[in-house]
Write a structure and sequence with these properties.
- There is one protein chain.
- By secondary structure, this protein is mainly alpha-helical.
- Helix content is 72%, strand content 0%.
- The protein is built from 9 helices and no strands.
- Helix 8 crosses helix 9.
Length: 155
């Protein structure tokens, strides 16, 4: 393990990591301290990179929400994943409402269940579990399934 590497090494490694993808402050700290860099020196370098615009938890949050939502994940799951990555709850909640969750949920639902109909309660429960696992709220799920169910009845 390195005892006290200089900030140039830390900055170089940070920029290499950030060049691959956006990272949260917590992710950078974890990766760099695992490599043996001093925690205080790492924090100082990340603060400097944040001030220069190289590292931004807000930018990471916006990109992460867009990516996960486009893959069919809902606000509950995305919120949990962001908090695990060190994003503050208030920052997550400010960024989440900007998405149209019903559209993303409908795409995930149709991809999984295509044109099959809900024929009984166990089938409905299965679909509810799937959407719940994906991170959608009970209210969002019921709105979708009630709309889908009403549409299926009139076919």
């Amino acid at each position: 393990m390195m005892s006290h590497p200089d900030s140039t090494q830390i900055k170089t490694k940070c920029l290499e990591l950030l060049a691959r993808r956006e990272m949260t402050r917590l992710e950078l700290v974890n990766k760099l301290t695992q490599r043996g860099f001093d925690v205080e020196a790492v924090h100082a370098v990340i603060d400097e990179l944040h001030q220069q615009g190289w590292q931004s938890d807000q930018r990471f949050t916006e990109q992460y929400i867009a990516m996960r939502a486009s893959k069919g994940y809902g606000p509950v799951r995305i919120k949990q994943e962001l908090q695990e990555r060190g994003i503050e709850q208030t920052d997550v909640e400010q960024s989440l409402p900007s998405q149209d969750w019903q559209i993303y949920m409908l795409k995930a639902y149709r991809k999984k269940f295509s044109d099959t109909h809900i024929i009984d309660w166990p089938e409905r429960a299965k679909r509810m579990r799937f959407l719940s696992y994906r991170g959608y709220t009970a209210e969002q799920i019921n709105t979708l399934l009630n709309t889908e169910y009403a549409t299926e009845l009139h076919q």
